[in-house]
Design the sequence.
């Protein structure tokens, strides 16, 4: 008997050793938003979203890309922005928007891609216009975006048009838009080609990548006291100055070589505002 008992104890121990630790649920695991009123908690790179709303796959003037990612959720004000912007752009002659990622159903850090997009106030929009016909499921998943920057990385590509300028100006005209990230080459092109009416250029911020899509970030909804605005605030002026020149400097090239713009570590659940734990596990 002692041998049998020992064998049993040994196999139990082995089970304990080899059983994987229960993996913590992440924001990417949750398929739907929480019910209840919308609530933005924290900031775009360290936060979450309660009461999120899904953007319908299609709407007037837009089609949603990569629906399988389930990143088409946002604060109702973001959903309203996307639909209003799509309608306005379409009325101005843009064929249709291709909408990339918004946020996960409850916001929070993503397992891949963006570091921001955590509070349901950010959306990526492709520079490539939508075709007139509805895209198939596989086209939505597999079509490639189109870069607006030439191969040398110093000028815009032949795909860049006056219509793109108008599209960005329309996006910037919404007062709820805090800033719009574009590739430095695109910002410089705007600086050189936009005439007298250029106050809107302030919202156009140069950033790594963003050559095939632009990223629109909204201000905090005014009633959300837990929402943190982006810092620093967008400076006055059109931004066509030394701060833009930096992006074309040897220092910037060196930063890029060292991995600037590559995905950075994402905050863990413990690093998020504590209310985000309730959002993650709540009904
Ligand atoms: Zn983005």
Sequence:
């Amino acid at each position: 008997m002692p041998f049998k008992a020992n064998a049993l104890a040994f196999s139990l121990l082995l089970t304990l050793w080899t059983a994987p630790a229960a993996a913590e649920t992440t924001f990417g695991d949750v398929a739907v938003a929480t019910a209840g009123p919308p609530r933005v908690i924290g900031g775009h790179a360290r936060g979450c979203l309660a009461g999120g709303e899904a953007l319908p796959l299609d709407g007037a003037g837009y089609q949603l890309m990569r629906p399988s990612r389930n990143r088409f959720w946002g604060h109702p004000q973001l959903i309203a922005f996307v639909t209003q912007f799509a309608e306005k752009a379409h009325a101005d002659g843009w064929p249709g928007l291709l909408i990339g990622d918004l946020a996960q159903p409850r916001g929070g850090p993503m397992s891949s891609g963006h570091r921001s997009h955590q509070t349901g106030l950010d959306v990526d929009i492709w520079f490539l216009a939508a075709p007139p016909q509805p895209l198939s499921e596989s086209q939505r998943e597999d079509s490639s975006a189109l870069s607006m920057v030439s191969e040398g990385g110093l000028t815009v590509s032949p795909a860049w048009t006056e219509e793109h300028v108008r599209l960005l100006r329309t996006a910037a005209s919404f007062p709820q838009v805090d800033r719009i990230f574009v590739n430095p080459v695109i910002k410089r092109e705007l600086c050189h080609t936009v005439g007298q009416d250029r106050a809107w250029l302030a919202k156009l911020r140069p950033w790594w990548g963003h050559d095939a899509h632009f990223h629109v970030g909204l201000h905090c909804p005014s009633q959300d006291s837990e929402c943190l605005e982006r810092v620093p605030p967008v400076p006055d002026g059109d931004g066509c100055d030394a701060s833009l020149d930096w992006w074309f400097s040897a220092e910037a090239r060196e930063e890029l070589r060292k991995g600037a713009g590559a995905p950075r570590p994402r905050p863990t659940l413990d690093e998020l505002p504590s209310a985000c734990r309730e959002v993650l596990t709540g009904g």
